[in-house]
Specification:
Layout lengths: L2 H20 L3 H24 L8 H12 L5 H7 L2
């Protein structure tokens, strides 16, 4: 159940991202959004493999999750990862 740590932190960062956007701190909202997605992807890795990739590269993490789940993300999702 270690993945719950990652999922909970992802939710916390998502809440922070929304609040910061509402308050006009867009740079901080972007940072918290990236952290939220990173923690979510690492949580999925933890759930299915028991470990996670040591990177902050969302595209790399997404590729790992695609292989784990047997799904393919759209090109738009990859573009957002690299934005």
């Amino acid at each position: 159940m270690v993945e719950k740590f990652w999922f909970n932190k992802s939710d916390e960062f998502y809440s922070i991202a929304k609040e910061m956007a509402e308050r006009g701190y867009y740079w901080f909202s972007c940072f918290a959004s990236q952290q939220s997605v990173e923690f979510l992807l690492k949580g999925i890795e933890m759930k299915y493999t028991g470990s996670h990739t040591f990177t902050q590269d969302l595209s790399e993490l997404l590729q790992k999750v695609e292989k784990i789940l047997g799904v393919k993300a759209t090109e738009e999702v990859y573009q957002a990862c690299d934005f």
